[in-house]
Amino acid sequence: MLPPERTPRQRIIDLITGTRLSSYQLAQMLGIPERQVEEHLTHVVKTIARNKTRQFILDPARCQDCDFVFRDRSRLTSPSRCPHCRSEAIAAPRYGIDLSAPQLNPHYS
Prior knowledge:
Elements: H1 8-16, E1 21-22, H2 23-30, H3 34-50, E2 54-59, E3 62-63, E4 90-91, E5 94-99
Antiparallel strand pairs: 1-5, 2-5, 3-4
Helix pairs in contact: 1-3, 2-3
C-alpha cells in the first residue's frame, strides 16, 4: 500500500513506473473513480515530460475483435468503439513510465 500523504498524481507516478497499468487498475489501487485517474494522467504526462530521465509510455487501446490498434489516438481515455468493425470490445490502453537516458525530444511511445 502506498503512503496516503502523497498526492494521487504522485501515487500514480509511483504505481506506473517500471510497469504498465490500465486506468481501471489504477482506480482500484488508489480507491478513486476511473475518470479521476484519467484526469490525473493528463497532468502526469506533463510532469514526466519535464523530467529528462523518465519517459511516459502509452500502450494503445486495441479492438479485441479485429485487432485494430488505436496508435494515432491523442486522448488518454479508452475509445468507445472500433472505427473498423464497430465493435465495443476494446482492450483499454495501458500506461507506464520508463527510466531512460536523457533525450532531446521526450515523446509518447
